[in-house]
């Protein structure tokens, strides 16, 4: 169900869906669909190759054994395996305007036990030739330490996906970071920015967290700063993990480096609903 729409550059450019009605195997969660100001989609929800990819969402593959990513779980010695361990993110409260929203989200395991309480803030702003989305989340351990892992930390080399993840509908894209062009330079890079140029649109993303980028352009095009790479990440009881991502979006002829600056500025400006 759609819960809020964000406007920028004279158009509705993003829509928040609460994830209700999704199958348990998809790890139902609130997610964002987005488009250019001209209406060209830049997110993909439920594609045939990965039905659990839900546009732009905050998805973690292993939170104390619960998957909030969806699909199969990587099990050392067995590979990707279907398990009855899918969690759910529920929107507990929401405040929204035309350009910004604030939401509190409860992360619950299969039995309904609350593991994480998330405070999420999103803001859409107009930029030259397009618009930018700033996303900030704070993940607080509810009543005990929380341990976050990824398939990579669990034994599948390179598969360190998990965090604010953006799945595009593009068949291909040229990727670059401060460490160079191409996926080999981008995947695992701690560059503060990443750019993607596709025939349909140009995207540039920025983050302040210093986390490595998870990037794919073969099979599908998707990206996001990864939470658990060198080891499991623990949120202590009473503590919180801050995550952020800004994405600047324009047409296919836009200058990707200008967009990278726009994305960085969107994060610097903060989020005010």
Which helices and strands occur, and which strands form pairs?
Elements: E1 2-8, E2 11-17, E3 31-34, E4 56-59, E5 62-63, E6 73-75, E7 79-81, E8 88-96, E9 100-108, E10 114-127, E11 130-141, E12 146-149, E13 163-167, E14 174-177, E15 180-181, H1 183-186, E16 193-197, E17 202-206, E18 213-216, E19 222-225, E20 233-235, E21 240-250, H2 256-269
Antiparallel strand pairs: 1-2, 2-3, 4-13, 5-12, 6-7, 8-9, 9-10, 10-11, 11-21, 12-20, 13-19, 14-15, 14-16, 16-17, 17-21, 18-19
How would you sum up the major sheet?
9 strands, antiparallel
- Strand content range: 35-45%
Radius of gyration over all CA atoms, rounded = 17 Å
Strand order of the largest sheet: 8-9-10-11-21-17-16-14-15
Poorly predicted tracts of residues: none
Kindly report the average pLDDT value.
97
Order of helices and strands: EEEEEEEEEEEEEEEHEEEEEEH
Number of helices, where a helix is a run of at least 4 consecutive DSSP H or I residues = 2
Globally, the shape reads globular
């Amino acid at each position: 169900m759609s819960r809020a729409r964000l406007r920028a550059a004279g158009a509705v450019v993003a829509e928040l869906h609460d994830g209700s009605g999704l199958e348990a195997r998809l790890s139902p969660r609130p997610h964002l669909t987005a488009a250019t100001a001209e209406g060209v989609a830049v997110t993909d929800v439920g594609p045939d190759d990965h039905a659990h990819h839900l546009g732009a969402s905050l998805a973690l593959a292993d939170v104390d054994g619960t998957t909030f990513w969806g699909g199969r779980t990587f099990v050392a010695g067995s590979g990707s395996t279907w398990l009855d361990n899918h969690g759910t993110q529920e929107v507990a409260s929401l405040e929204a305007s035309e350009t910004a929203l604030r939401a509190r989200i409860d992360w619950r395991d299969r039995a309904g036990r609350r593991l994480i309480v998330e405070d999420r803030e999103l803001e859409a702003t107009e930029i030259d030739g397009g618009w930018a989305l700033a996303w900030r989340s704070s993940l607080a351990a509810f009543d005990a330490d929380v341990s976050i892992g990824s398939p990579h930390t669990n034994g599948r080399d390179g598969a360190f996906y998990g965090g604010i993840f953006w799945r595009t509908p593009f068949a291909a894209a040229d990727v670059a970071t401060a460490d160079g062009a191409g996926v080999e330079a981008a995947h695992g890079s701690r560059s503060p920015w990443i750019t993607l140029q596709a025939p349909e649109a140009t995207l540039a993303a920025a983050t302040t967290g210093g986390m490595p980028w998870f990037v794919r352009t073969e099979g599908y095009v998707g990206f996001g700063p990864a939470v658990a790479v060198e080891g499991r990440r623990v949120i202590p009881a009473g503590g919180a993990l801050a995550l952020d991502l800004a994405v600047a979006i324009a047409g296919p002829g836009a200058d990707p480096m200008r967009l990278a600056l726009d994305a960085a500025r969107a994060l610097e400006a903060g989020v005010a609903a």
